[in-house]
């Protein structure tokens, strides 16, 4: 699905240059659960933006399903983000005085999906993310952190993307709630979704099948997890 070929990224500000990526190469297969791990300043956020078709490399190639992303038009990039990639962020990015159901419907509203179908797809995504129906009409600011992240996951799922890209999704959560969210990602991966998780925490990364370790803009290690950490199955159904 994803092929990164000798990608570099340099940011320029006047005469100053910052090299965020220094020539990274790796592949992610369809259906894999991969963690990209590194400390602050390692280049992982830059790499996330490139994988998410939010930015282009300075040199090198990014192939998504065999297509060179840097050669696509802005409209084509927008269609990739809308139809093929589901984003989950640390800060949730939900509308506070809007219901859970409407928050999840938003991508479908922009895609001009009819109202009845929007509601059906949003409810399906919420159930897949582990939300109970009695919370569908709650405002998002009435939810706990774990529930808000589940709504954010449902919003990422609603267009049935082939790739889920999660940026520090447990960063604002306590340990138990974070485990529930990671268990949800593992469940979605088992259902066929490709998941790429960006994190600086080793304990979080170990829930993935493969870890790509970044440091100073370079890949220093790729590690296959023969004993992938598995969150307590009881937590999947433990709605906070």
How would you describe the overall organization of this protein?
The protein is an alpha/beta fold. The protein has helices at residues 44-51, 74-83, 100-110, 115-128, 145-157, 175-190, 202-205, 233-236, and strands at residues 2-13, 16-28, 33-37, 59-64, 67-68, 85-89, 163-167, 194-199, 210-215, 218-224. The chain is built from eight helices and ten strands. α4 packs across α5 and α5 packs parallel to α6 (175-190). The strands form two sheets. A six-stranded mixed beta sheet has the order 6-7-8-3-9-10, with helices on both faces. The mean pLDDT is 90.
Could you name the key traits of this structure?
single chain, 240 residues, alpha/beta, 6-stranded mixed beta sheet, 4-stranded antiparallel beta sheet, 8 helices, 10 strands, globular
């Amino acid at each position: 699905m994803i092929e990164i070929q000798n990608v570099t990224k340099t940011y320029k500000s006047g005469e100053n240059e910052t090299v965020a990526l220094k020539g990274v190469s790796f592949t992610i297969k369809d259906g894999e659960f991969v963690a990209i791990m590194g400390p602050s300043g390692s280049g992982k956020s830059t790499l996330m933006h490139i994988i998410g078709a939010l930015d282009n490399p300075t040199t090198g190639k990014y192939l998504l399903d065999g297509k060179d992303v840097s050669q696509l038009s802005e409209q084509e990039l927008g269609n990739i983000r809308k139809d093929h990639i589901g984003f989950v962020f640390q800060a949730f990015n939900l509308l506070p005085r809007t219901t859970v159901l409407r928050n999840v419907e938003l991508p479908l509203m922009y895609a001009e999906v009819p109202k009845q179908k929007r509601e059906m797809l949003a409810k399906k995504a919420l159930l897949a993310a582990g939300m109970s129906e009695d919370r569908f009409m709650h405002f998002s600011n009435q939810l706990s952190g774990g529930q808000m992240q589940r709504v954010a996951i449902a919003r990422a799922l609603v267009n049935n993307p082939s790739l889920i890209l999660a940026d520090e999704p447990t960063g604002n959560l306590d340990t138990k709630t974070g485990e529930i969210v990671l268990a949800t990602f593992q469940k979605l991966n088992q259902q066929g979704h490709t998941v790429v998780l960006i994190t600086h925490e080793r304990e979080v990364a170990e829930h993935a099948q493969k870890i790509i370790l970044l440091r100073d803009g370079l890949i220093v290690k790729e590690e296959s997890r023969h004993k992938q950490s598995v969150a307590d199955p009881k937590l999947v159904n433990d709605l906070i």
